[in-house]
Write a structure and sequence with these properties.
Blueprint: H1 7-13, H2 16-19, E1 39-41, H3 48-52, E2 65-68, H4 72-85, E3 89-92, E4 109-112, E5 119-122, E6 127-130, H5 136-147, H6 161-166, H7 174-177, E7 184-192, E8 198-204, H8 212-217, E9 228-234, E10 250-258, H9 264-280, E11 291-296, E12 304-312, H10 318-329, E13 339-345
Parallel strand pairs: 2-4, 3-4
Antiparallel strand pairs: 1-2, 5-6, 6-9, 7-8, 7-9, 10-12, 10-13, 11-12
Pfam families: FAD_binding_4
Signal peptide: 1-27
Cofactor: FAD
Length: 357
């Protein structure tokens, strides 16, 4: 493949990209101990309805089969079966997709990767290996307890790593450490070649890797374009540190305004101030790089809306940085918040970043 291709062209190629991976470059999957699966669940099975549903109930597909798998070999066999029978495949790890990617009516086989949830250090590759079924909370806790490191992924601990990483992976530490795929060292993917043969290949960031383009395609290309990811290897490039250090303590601030007293003028000021602050304080090296904030202007029927701020409490002057941020965002706003509270918590590796206030 021509490595000068831009991502747009490669994305347009879609499934063809996987077919262009040379057979000779195929790599065997790391050994997986005997364990779960595969399990084939069809519409008459009492488990079908439960396994069918994801996070967004607006979309509910009716695949012929939900194949629950526990290893790379089982994924290869499932994809082979789908190709042989001409069925469209969709892949689910955590089930938090907000679109209909896994629930499209055209999907006839749904691959459930939830049992593939191992997280650990691969000494052979010198990188951390994460399987797609691992939830972010499990990833954070394992990395923190085992090695004191973390990744800049999302704040919901129940999200599956598979689709989250494939889409780039962004969260409360991303202003400081980038996206998850900035730390992607290699990826194991089940692809189908031009002859219709499914197999697992490993693609790495090494420039001389014959599958380098396939690795590059997973550094933010989104899920479902190139194959079924069965393993991610993560390591921060250009540094002796394997991954970013995990914050040992978080400073969080919650500001809540009532809708009842909010005017259009004050609401507009809040929105403009919030956007302007980020325009001015997002350059590399900014002292605010470690501060992450979400402004959530819910519907008026909710009664109030909020600003949630998080920062590594170990950053110098963290409390003062939060105070300065709140002051700038609220500048010129006459409506007073009904809550402006902050606290610091020594919780594990930011896996508490959603719903633990």
């Amino acid at each position: 493949m021509d490595i000068s291709l831009n991502r747009r062209k490669l994305l347009t190629a879609g499934g063809v990209a996987a077919a262009l991976v040379p057979k000779a470059a195929a790599a065997a999957a790391p050994p997986t101990p005997a364990g779960f699966g595969p399990m084939s669940v069809r519409p008459t099975d009492p488990r079908y309805e439960s396994l069918l549903r994801g996070n967004n109930f607006r979309f509910v597909g009716r695949p012929d089969e939900i194949r629950v798998v526990g290893s790379t070999d089982q994924v290869v066999r499932a994809v082979s079966d789908a190709v042989r029978s001409g069925r469209r495949v969709a892949v689910r790890s955590g089930g938090h997709c907000f679109e209909n990617f896994t629930a499209d009516p055209a999907v006839r086989m749904l691959l459930d990767l939830a049992p593939m949830d191992a997280v650990g250090f691969d000494a052979d590759r010198g990188a951390f290996a994460v399987q797609p079924g691992a939830t972010l909370g499990h990833v954070y806790k394992t990395l923190f307890k085992g090695w004191g490191v973390t990744i800049p992924a999302g704040g919901c601990p129940d999200v599956g790593a598979g689709g989250h990483f494939a889409g780039g992976g962004y969260g409360p530490l991303s202003r400081r450490y980038g996206s998850v795929v900035d730390h992607l060292d290699a990826v194991e993917v089940v692809v189908v070649d031009r002859n219709g043969t499914a197999r697992a290949v490993v693609a790495s960031r090494e420039p001389d890797d014959p599958n380098h383009d396939l690795w590059w395609a997973h550094t933010g290309g989104g899920g479902g374009n190139f194959g079924v990811v069965t393993r991610y290897w993560l390591r921060t490039p250009g540094t002796s540190q394997l991954l970013p250090p995990a914050p040992s303590q978080e400073l969080a601030c919650l500001v809540i305004w009532p809708w009842e007293q909010m005017t259009e003028s004050d609401f507009g000021k809040l929105m403009r101030n919030f956007g302007t602050w980020h325009e001015r304080n997002s350059a590399p090296g900014s002292p605010y790089a470690g501060l992450y904030a979400i402004l959530m202007p819910t519907h008026r029927s909710a009664g109030s809306f909020q600003l949630f701020i998080q920062i590594d409490a170990g950053i110098p002057n963290a409390n003062a940085l939060v105070s300065a941020f709140v002051k700038e965002v609220t500048a010129g706003v006459t409506v007073k918040p009904i809550l402006n509270d902050r606290r610091d918590d020594a919780l594990v590796a930011f896996d508490h970043l959603a719903g633990r206030w």
